[in-house]
């Protein structure tokens, strides 16, 4: 049985069902905050049930459900490999609806694009993971190892109730994982920068606004001095480990030349600083007595996020601000999965086989749930359909062809990594494109 061809043909023939599944997922308004996965979870559970796949529900709260569905490996040569397909059901809020050209929860297809909040981040990828798993189940593919769908409700607000909640409780485990986060169609992300979110509050003295700056001490003005000082976090010099210098170079080249990302290539070896929110004052004619600033800083390889916090404290003191600096949200260092890990090389091979084009992994300048898998020593990478410029933006969309391609890549990666009963090893699943892909991957990394 040529399982590779049988599976890929089934996905090709079932692409209308795949796209309809994606549309239905988008129609659930799973904005986080507030975060409520009950309705979309019920839909996914029933969809999997129709394919003969059972789902275990692990409720982190009354409204946030983690779902785990497993296809068990079989045969006399059953392996101990266990692949996790991971995706999140929550999306960022749609925001000002007047700035959308279409209903953000329409799930419609127009001009070759799937439209709606979550089309790229990440219901297009989630649909692909679910559909690929269903195809494998319906065809009764005799996988040697276990394949689990791990669908979580919380990623967009820090993810505390999602992946880490599941892994820390031992509710799921694996030897490798694929997350369907948005990526370039030829370049999965195999590493992410670290994160250092923090806030500080400046106290002032109120007074009548008409007497400022003679009377009162304006907390907002003081906070502005701190904001300016924190820009110098960019100047921290990383001590980049030798083993990641090449992947950083590749990622910079990719961002500069392939993505036409302008100056974005510079962030891979710098600490970035974003002043995300400012809350201060009580009324326009009252001198502000308090101002709280929240900062999103991303940390490159060769810098510890705790050193970023220490430097931020020093910079605020130099600006005359004596305030407690409070970490919150994402905290952690840069992390990656080397290109030689089987799940990485095999997914890259699968991209080349499906697309007929060169593929290789790159770093991501943001952070993600991938760090939690790596904290549990589970090799992981990210690959998903996307129109990258629309992620977390108005008019979010994803190319239909990428949704279909990703579903094929997910299924083929599972065959390669887990193996199929009766086949000697995953090399039986390669064709000439796959072999060329392996050579390209080696040369790039």
TrEMBL record:
<dbReference type="InterPro" id="IPR050072">
    <property type="entry name" value="Peptidase_M20A"/>
</dbReference>
<dbReference type="InterPro" id="IPR010182">
    <property type="entry name" value="ArgE/DapE"/>
</dbReference>
<keyword id="KW-0170">Cobalt</keyword>
<feature type="domain" description="Peptidase M20 dimerisation">
    <location>
        <begin position="190"/>
        <end position="319"/>
    </location>
</feature>
<comment type="pathway">
    <text>Amino-acid biosynthesis; L-lysine biosynthesis via DAP pathway; LL-2,6-diaminopimelate from (S)-tetrahydrodipicolinate (succinylase route): step 3/3.</text>
</comment>
<protein>
    <recommendedName>
        <fullName>Probable succinyl-diaminopimelate desuccinylase</fullName>
        <ecNumber>3.5.1.18</ecNumber>
    </recommendedName>
</protein>
<dbReference type="Pfam" id="PF01546">
    <property type="entry name" value="Peptidase_M20"/>
</dbReference>
<keyword id="KW-0479">Metal-binding</keyword>
<dbReference type="Pfam" id="PF07687">
    <property type="entry name" value="M20_dimer"/>
</dbReference>
<dbReference type="InterPro" id="IPR002933">
    <property type="entry name" value="Peptidase_M20"/>
</dbReference>
<keyword id="KW-0862">Zinc</keyword>
<dbReference type="InterPro" id="IPR001261">
    <property type="entry name" value="ArgE/DapE_CS"/>
</dbReference>
<comment type="similarity">
    <text>Belongs to the peptidase M20A family.</text>
</comment>
<dbReference type="InterPro" id="IPR036264">
    <property type="entry name" value="Bact_exopeptidase_dim_dom"/>
</dbReference>
<dbReference type="InterPro" id="IPR011650">
    <property type="entry name" value="Peptidase_M20_dimer"/>
</dbReference>
<keyword id="KW-0378">Hydrolase</keyword>
């Amino acid at each position: 049985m040529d399982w590779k061809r049988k599976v890929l043909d089934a996905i090709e023939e079932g692409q209308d069902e795949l796209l309809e599944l994606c549309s239905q997922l988008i129609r659930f308004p799973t904005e986080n905050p507030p975060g409520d996965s009950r309705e979309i979870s019920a839909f996914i559970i029933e969809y999997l049930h129709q394919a003969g796949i059972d789902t275990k529900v692990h409720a982190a709260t009354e409204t946030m459900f983690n779902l785990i569905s497993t296809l068990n490996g079989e045969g006399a040569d059953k392996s101990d490999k266990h692949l996790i397909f991971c995706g999140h059901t929550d999306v960022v809020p749609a925001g000002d609806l007047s700035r959308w050209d279409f209903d953000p929860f329409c799930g419609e297809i127009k001009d070759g694009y799937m439209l709606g909040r979550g089309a790229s981040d990440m219901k297009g990828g989630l649909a692909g993971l679910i559909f690929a798993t269903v195809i494998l189940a319906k065809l009764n593919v005799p996988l040697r190892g276990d394949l689990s769908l791990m669908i979580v409700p919380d990623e967009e607000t820090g993810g505390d109730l999602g992946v880490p909640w599941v892994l820390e409780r031992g509710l799921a485990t694996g030897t490798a994982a694929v997350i369907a986060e948005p990526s370039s169609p030829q370049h999965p992300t195999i590493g992410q920068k670290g994160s250092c979110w923090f806030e500080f509050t400046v106290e002032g003295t109120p007074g009548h606004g008409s007497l400022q700056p003679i009377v009162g001490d304006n907390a907002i003005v003081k906070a502005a001095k701190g904001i300016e000082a924190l820009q110098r976090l960019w100047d921290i010099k990383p001590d980049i480990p030798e083993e990641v210098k090449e992947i950083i170079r590749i990622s910079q080249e990719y961002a500069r030349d392939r993505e036409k990302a302008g100056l974005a290539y510079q962030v891979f070896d710098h600490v970035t600083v974003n002043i995300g929110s400012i809350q201060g004052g009580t009324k326009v004619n009252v001198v502000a007595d308090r101002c709280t600033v929240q900062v999103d800083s991303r940390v490159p390889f060769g810098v510890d996020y705790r050193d970023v916090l220490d430097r931020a404290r020093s910079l605020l003191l130099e600006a005359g601000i004596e305030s407690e600096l409070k970490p919150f949200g994402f905290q952690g260092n840069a992390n990656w999965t080397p290109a030689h890990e089987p799940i990485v090389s095999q997914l890259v091979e699968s991209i080349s086989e499906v697309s007929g084009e060169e593929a290789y992994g790159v770093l991501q300048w943001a952070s993600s749930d991938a760090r939690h898998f790596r904290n549990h020593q589970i090799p992981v990478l990210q690959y998903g359909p996307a129109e990258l410029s629309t992620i977390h933006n108005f008019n979010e969309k994803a190319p239909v062809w990428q949704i279909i391609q990703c579903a094929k890549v997910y299924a083929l990666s599972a065959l390669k990594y887990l193996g199929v009963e009766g086949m000697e090893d995953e090399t039986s699943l390669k064709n000439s494109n796959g072999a060329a892909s392996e050579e390209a991957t080696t040369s790039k990394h």
